[in-house]
């Protein structure tokens, strides 16, 4: 970069003008050794030559020889303090060395000389981004683009900053702008892949990750992103290979290491997953997120060194970022329950839940009102008038219920049958609803159902069926039954009946207190915001139960099979036979060994369903603890029994 004629800087620059121009031409052509030779030749004759020092500094910066670059650029600035470009390049060297505060000062100095220097606005934005000062980063990167609309790197960096603020649509637009300027820009393909992954478009993420890798074969981050996209597409073996590639390129790459552990966990390789998380704890011993993952794959003992480290971290909880405080509280809640320290376990869970709840925006009034709106729309009269228009397929099996009620166990039993593919939790039904125009726009579900033409229900069923069969085919399966364990489909049972009247529905129930305390012990994603406050959890459970009672009165008898978790555990084979019969499946003894099923499991029960059946999750809690009052009052009368707290 240059802000003044290089040959005008320094009193003896003119004699070397031709040689400097030749060296710079070689530099632009990529012949770095020849360019370096000529720059050094000039400096041997004139050690104060600004242009040669500046360009040689840039050359060393490009080679990754950052300390040498910084030395040369400092000398160049001493010779010509008015060079905004040299100050900007030196700031870039500080940025590369993670000396971000010095970089910020350097970029700001450059901008006092040349306020329209796009490279300085871009560099300043990346320095702010590295320090997680996201709003300032966005402002600087926008200024860089305003100054130079064809600045592909600035578009790409702005996309990554916008992604951190959950502005996915804007981020994707800037990725595409960068690629319109430079179609072979590997970093822009990676950024777009990351945005597509956020938007739950794994196929697009796979495509752009692979393009980035083809352009830059040593791109560890792109391999990691490709692994995540393949994992999201239910291709765990390929995902694991990508994480291995990323780690081979960059040993100790933490994100790839942790993602590899998570992929091993969902495929049932629990011991290997645990080893990966232990390795992460060793590499970053003060990062609570690693202990959180480890605690949820291993049963800890009182003398476990990792438990001791977690306790030590908790002594200075304020030193951790808030999200890591949440993770450490939940990790200690699980670990202390393992060793029988139930009072301290519950104390940490309360603290973790309180912190998490404070970070969430939960519209409880709107959520509970949705249950009333569903009942108001799916009346017996409406159901009768629309009956008989749906798709005739009997392939889908819907498993519904509250989180932590035993739904993963039911799906694991079914998916062990050779005729069944376990689909897990997916967005296929919601996508099908949107595709046929049954949601979105000014009117939202369920009110859209009032005006939806009856023949659209068959289209909805067909669209959903195509999606789940495509997913199964991608996993190499052509089953006669496919499970869908998206629990919130309990709200959609009326719609499911109209769109897929021959589908099979299983509702799994568990003791109310056991269910709610199990929810309270888990750190879910943000789509379950009602689980972090005992009173809200109790009210949600009660509303959910009331809706299931309503469906019993509206839907045909026996269309929904109700399964009690306690009965399933205590009389397993009889209940398993009942589940298979409801789904039109012949009995298969393989279902008794569900824990040997190696399919991917992505729920909080991924570890538990790899174990033989156990009874310890039943009747876990009914203490005389005032902390439970908000839950018990809002649940109303329940059938819990007294006993010790044993968190799942």
First-last Cα distance: 60 Å
Average pLDDT level: 90
Instruction: Tell me the Rg in angstroms.
Output: 30 Å
CATH architectural designation of the largest domain: 3-Layer(aba) Sandwich
CATH secondary-structure class of the largest domain: Alpha Beta
Q: Report the principal-axis shape.
A: elongated
Strand content: under 5%
- Major sheet strand order: 2-3-1-4-5
**Low-pLDDT ranges:** 1-12, 638-648
Tell me about this structure:
The chain has helices at residues 17-29, 32-45, 50-63, 66-79, 84-96, 100-113, 118-130, 134-147, 152-164, 168-181, 186-198, 202-215, 220-232, 236-249, 254-266, 270-283, 288-295, 305-314, 322-338, 342-359, 364-377, 380-386, 407-415, 428-435, 456-474, 493-499, 512-520, 534-554, 565-570, 572-582, 629-635; strands spanning 396-400, 420-422, 481-484, 504-509, 560-564. With 648 residues, the chain is mainly alpha-helical. Mean pLDDT is 90; it is low at 1-12 and 638-648. It has 3 domains: 6-225, Serine Threonine Protein Phosphatase 5, Tetratricopeptide repeat (Alpha Horseshoe); 290-359, no CATH class; 365-635, 3-Layer(aba) Sandwich (Rossmann fold), CATH 3.40.50.
